[in-house]
């Protein structure tokens, strides 16, 4: 993040409103920035039990969408929330064990060349 | 990302990422919208210019933030493979986002408007420096002078292995050909680097 520049004054933007749902937090609690195409999924473990953090409606919406594997970017699209907000809320759910990041497939399972060929065939078939 | 990983089975699908770059008004949003199966999402990425303590609600009011619309598209290419397109915000003041967006990307399309070729220098330099395979797609705007690919190649000082192609960002068939050309360029680039 830059420490600021002249554009800040020219374009203040709608500012903090989107971050109201995170209680004003703009960085994930664990400091990790999930990749936009990282895949996450609900673990089925109950969230929030006995925890300091109360689940907000947005946390619950994320949990519902995460019943199936989904990318961080798709979550943002589905919920109509900025990716930065999604990351903060996901980090809460991950810390509670309610959501997990799905490991990438081992490279051996499908080689990079196989994936490229699949993309090419898929595009041609569109 | 060690700690957050689950022991659950591996991903059911593979997500791959392609970048769409180019100057302001070069057609990035149009291109992503033409081929994406999801409504062209223009998620507002909120940028903070000062970090505050967690739960520091008092800090919120004074925090300087701005938003940038992020072009995002998805193409499902089979049961277990999805291709994601992300536009790189063209304006220079957002260029610090490029690193994050390009992390793990397969390659990039640089959209060029021949009336303002200089606008894509920054993207071309960026992908050359990062050794990320890319192609240049000349977006054919109405009334723009016709350049041939060779003229553009010379003007942009492109390496011979960088393909230059024409496109109409509004037309799904044309966009599809651009993406095919990019994937072919990525394959060729990998074949070259495995030979050396
Ligand atoms: N004639 C023509 N107009 C285009 C084409 N691509 C984009 N445009 C128009 O150019 C303008 C800028 O495009 P946009 O996608 O917003 O550019 P961005 O700033 O790179 O996202 C819009 O009014 C588009 O409708 C094209 O291939 N041909
Ligand atoms: Mg745009």
Report on this model:
The complex is a heterodimer of chains A (126) and B (196). Chain A is mostly helical and 126 residues long. Chain A is built from five helices and three strands. Chain A has a three-stranded antiparallel beta sheet with strand order 2-1-3. In chain A, helix 2 (57-65) crosses helix 4 (83-95) and helix 3 (72-79) packs across helix 4. The longest helix of chain A is centred in the C-terminal third of the chain and has 13 residues, at 83-95. Chain A is elongated and about 45 Å long. Mean pLDDT of chain A is 79; it is low at 1-16. Chain B is α/β, with parallel strands linked by helices. Chain B has a single domain, classed as P-loop containing nucleotide triphosphate hydrolases (Rossmann fold, 3-Layer(aba) Sandwich). In chain B, strands 2-3-4-1-5-6-7 form a seven-stranded mixed beta sheet, with helices on both faces. The model of chain B is unreliable at 1-6 and 49-63 (pLDDT under 50). At the A-B interface, helix 3, helix 4 and helix 5 of A face strand 1, strand 2, helix 2, strand 3 and strand 4 of B. The structure holds guanosine-5'-diphosphate and magnesium ion (MG). Magnesium ion binds next to helix 1 of chain B.
Taken together, the total number of domains of chain B comes to 1
Largest sheet of chain B: 7 strands, mixed
CATH architecture of chain B: 3-Layer(aba) Sandwich
* Annotation, overall tally of beta strands of chain A: 3
Brief account:
Chain A is mainly α. Chain A has 5 helices and 3 strands, in the order αβαβααβα.
Features:
heterodimer, A: 126 residues, Arc Repressor Mutant, subunit A, 3-stranded antiparallel beta sheet, 5 helices, 37% helix, 7% strand, B: 196 residues, alpha/beta, 7-stranded mixed beta sheet, globular, binds guanosine-5'-diphosphate
